[in-house]
Amino acid sequence: MKKTSLLIMAFIILSLLLTACKNNEEKKIADVVRTFYETMKKGDLDKALTLTKGTDQASPEQLLTAKDILSLGSSMAKGIDKVVVKQVKLLDEKNALVLVELQLGGKAKDTKMKAFKEASGWKVDISGQ
Q1: Signal sequence: where (predicted)?
Q2: Which domains does the chain have, with CATH numbers?
């Protein structure tokens, strides 16, 4: 009887720990996505670039291309009033799908983003793939 009780208690504790880890990762991803949109709105392309997938090992040419893409997005992002991360779905330990609600001129628009975990942390994918 004691062994069964201890086994059940250990299972409950393990479940709680795993849930806490998952929630912590989801919070990190949501923070990165929010920060990405905020930096885009401010026009801080250098900061936005640090939050973008693939820039850790990118060549200078690739960084310039990514910065050009961000520059186009930044002009559109200036109209964003509010960013609400509605849902983060961890697909595995390195991939996530994020549902974001953008408030644009008082109207809400949902958009999906992918996030990837790299050595330096979670990054957003701007490739659209």
Answers
A1: 1-20
A2: 2-124 (3.10.450.50)
